[in-house]
Amino acid sequence: MSAIPLPDGSNAADMIRRLRAIDAEIFGTLYANAGIIGGDVTIEGTLTGNDILSSNWDGTIPVDLSGGADGGATAGYALDGSAGAAQFQTIYAESGEFGNFDILGTLTMGAGGVLRTAASGQRLELAESFGDRINWYTADASESSPGTLFGFYAGAAGTGHLQLNLHSPQNTTRSTQTRLELKAQSASGASGPEVTVYATGTYNIQPVARFVDFIMRVDDGTESAPGFAFNSSIATGMYLLGANILATATGAGTRMYWDVNGTHLVTLGTTGSAANLFADTALGNRIKRSTASSRAYKTDIQPLTNPPIVHASTFHYIPGYVDDDPKGKVMHYGFIAQDVQAALGDDSVTYNEDGSVDDYNWKHIIATLEARIAILEARE
After folding, report:
1. CA-to-CA distance for 316 and 324, rounded, in angstroms?
2. Could you tell me the pTM of the whole model?
C-alpha cells in the first residue's frame, strides 16, 4: 500500500480518523472519533451491517443470537445481522401500548411469562406459571386469588382434565360465596336459549358427569315443563309442586308427589291380581296397599275363635266437619275409633301426627263381625 498523504493542517488524531475510515471500507466496521458519532446521522439509503449494539449492552461481544437469546445480558439491546435476530431487554411503546401488533408466526412465552389485558385491577391473564392457564381478576377487595382455567393430565391412565376454579374470597373480609354461571340469551322472537354441556366417550365407554361436594339447583318448573326433564320428552320429569313438595310428571300431568306426610298418588295405574297400591283420598292420596290378602304376605295365621265385641253407636258430626252434613243435623250409625281401639287394640286404629286416635281399620271390624256371625250360626 502506498503512503497516504496528509492534507495541510492535519494532525495525528485526524490521521487516525482517516485510517479508520479506510478500515471501514475494507473490513466493514465503522469507527467514529472516540467511538462516538457526534450530532445526528441521517441515512437516505440502506444501512447494512452485521452487529448493532446499544452503548449499555452487557451481553457477549461479538453478538451471537443464532441459538437463542443471550442469557447473560441484563441491559441494552443487540441486533445480530448474521442470525437475523434482535434482543431487547425492555421494549417500550408510546404510552406503554402498541397500536397494532400483528404476529405472523408463533409467540412463545418463557418461564413465568404473563400476557395480561391490564397491569392491575380487573384483568385477564394468560400465564405460564403453574402450568399454562388463564387467570381472571375481578378487582374485588375480598378476592384473595383469581379464578383460573387450565387443562392437565393426571393418573396412571392419563385422564384429561379441564379444571375451572372460581374466585377465592377472603372469608375474613366478608361473608360471601362463589358462583359459576352459564348463561344463554336469545334475541326477541328467537327460540328459547339453551346451554349445552357435552361429554363424549370413545370405545363405547359411557361418559359420566360427576359432581363432588356440589349442590345443584334448578328452577321449580311446572307439570308441563319440569325442572328436570328429558330431551326426548320435555314434559316428563320432576318439579317442585310447592314448598317441600316434590312431584313427578308424565305427559304434562302430575302423577305422584312427596311431602312431609309421605308419598301420594295423583293418578293410579296399578291393576291385576298381585298386591296393588291405591291412593287413599281420605289421607291426602297417601299410598296404601289394596289387595294384600294372600297368605304369601302373612305369618302367624290363627283362627278368630273368641272375637271381641265392638259396639256400634249413633252420633252426629261436629258442624262443618263433613260436606254432606255441614250443620251436623244428620243421625249417623257406625263405630267410634276409640271404642274399636279398646276392643281390638292399638293396631286397629290410625293416628294423627300429634299421636291422637284418628280412624279405625274397617277390615278389623269386618273380621270381628264375621267371626261373631259364625259363632251364632254354629249355635243354631
Report:
1. 12
2. 0.37
